[in-house]
Amino acid sequence: MNVLRSSELSLALLVGCSVKMTCLLGFAWIIARAARRQSAAVRHLVWSLGILGSLILPLLTLLLPGWHPATLWHASELLSSPYGMAASPGARTLPSMIVDAGAASPLSSKLSSLALLVWAAGFMVISMRLVGGIARLAWVSAQSMPLLEQNWMRAVLEISKRSKIARPVRVLQCGNQAVMPLTWGIFRPIIILPAIAREWPEDRRRIVIGHELSHVARGDWLVQVCAELARAFYWFHPFAWMAAGCLRQESECACDDSVLNCGIEPSDYANQLLDLARTLKNSSRARSAALALARPSNLERRFASMLKPSMNRSPLSHRARLLTVLSALCLLLPLAALRLPAQNPSGKFTGTIYDPSGALVPNATVIMTNHKTNKVEMTTSGTEGNFNFAALAVGEYEMKVVKPGFEEYKGATIVLEPSRESSQNITLKIGSFVEEVNVVAEGTAKPLPAETSGKPARFRLGGDIQAPKLVNKVQPVYPPASKAAGIEGTVILHAIIGMEGNPLSLRVMNSQVDPELARAAVEAVSKWRYSPTVLNGEPIEVDTTIMVNFKLLS
Question: On the chain, which terminus has fewer CB atoms closer than 10 Å, C or N?
Answer without folding.
Answer: C
